[in-house]
Amino acid sequence: MSKPTPAPQVIEHDGHAVIHGDAIAALEQLVPDKSVDLIFADPPYNIGKNFNGRMDRWPSDEAYMEWCRRWIDLCLAKLKDNGSFYLMTSTQNMPYFDLYVRSKAHILSRIIWSYDSSGVQAKRYYGSLYEPILFGVKDKDNYTFNADAIMVEARTGAKRKLIDYRKPVPTQYNTRKVPGNVWNIPRVRYRMEEYEEHPTQKPTALLERIVLASSNPGDIVLDPFSGTFTTAFVAKSLGRKSIGIEIDEEYMKIGLRRLGIRDEYNGEKLHRKPKTYEQPKESPQHLVLFEP
Ligand SMILES: C[S@@+](CC[C@H](N)C(=O)[O-])C[C@H]1O[C@@H](n2cnc3c(N)ncnc32)[C@H](O)[C@@H]1O
Fold first, then answer.
1. pLDDT value of residue 280
2. What is the pLDDT at residue 212?
3. Which residue of 22, 226, 231, 253 sits with most ligand 1 atoms within 8 Å of its CB, as the best mutation to test the pocket?
4. What is the number of the ligand 1 atom nearest to the C-alpha of 207?
């Protein structure tokens, strides 16, 4: 990553802290140990994305993992003993994450966030249409999981009001259930209300499920790689507190705006750029067909 790294700076308002700086430095310097209830970490994946001029590419898998191990250790240190974490990375790097994390904490679910795409992903192999998420806890006997808050319609049986005759007393299938570990949630597209200018913005629907299940109102939710601050935005809308860290100033400004912390930064008005179809049309040039 070529751009200079700013020393971490905090802008805080009403239980929400936006930190502009490097995740490792910010976690080390600004976040007390065992102070956070929930962490959602969606780092650069080492797949060559361009985050506003910072390239998402490490010299080797090992160099990437060495960096990841540092922030994963810090995240675990910052988590309360009953805290939970969700970690994302690319499909190819997730096996390294899995091996490392399960030597330090308890992995409870290996979630697949799956989505469709109208574009052609690949022609000579199977295109990638999912991203893996590890869900883990520090103490598998003491953690928050609000099952009732995230129930979904059970598809099999229930819809047709089938009876499950395998039960000791035949019973109708449940109509509601805790979601399984394959989550079909559309990616954020340009025409969606929540769209921001960022190459890997995560959908609010994904974070809503995570925040509802694994935290309670008033809890502290931390995202060390905030991007467009989806996590903090959702945390705020659900009455949680948030800490969001982001190294890029442009993305950090999205956070300030999305969280309603500032409408101006260093003299610049913070507003979402209008979509192409929202821009006021120029007044039509009337063709003068006939000279009067
Ligand atoms: C995969 S994106 C996160 C997207 C985010 N979940 C969202 O919904 O918008 C990773 C983010 O990490 C930021 N980043 C990269 N290196 C960083 C570092 N060392 N410290 C903090 N943020 C970093 C990038 O600028 C990028 O916005």
1. 73
2. 98
3. 226
4. 8
Q: Ligand 1: which of 49, 189, 246 to mutate, judged by most atoms within 8 Å of the beta carbon?
A: 246
Q: Maximum distance among all alpha carbons in the chain?
A: 91
190-217 per-position pLDDT tens digit: 999 999 999 999 999 999 999 999 999 9
User: Is the model's pLDDT at 55 over the cut of 80?
Assistant: yes
What DSSP designation does 151 have?
-
pLDDT tens-digit map of 134-158: 999 999 999 999 999 999 988 766 6
C-alpha of 76 from chain center: 18
For ligand 1, atom 12, the nearest C-alpha belongs to 225
The domains found in the chain, sorted by start residue, are: 9-119+127-144+181-278 (3.40.50.150), 146-179 (no CATH)
Distance from residue 153's CA to the centre of ligand 1 (Å): 33
Do 32 and 78 form a contact (C-beta atoms < 8 A)? yes
In angstroms, the CA 119 to CA 289 distance is 44
Cβ atoms < 10 Å from Cβ of 64: 22
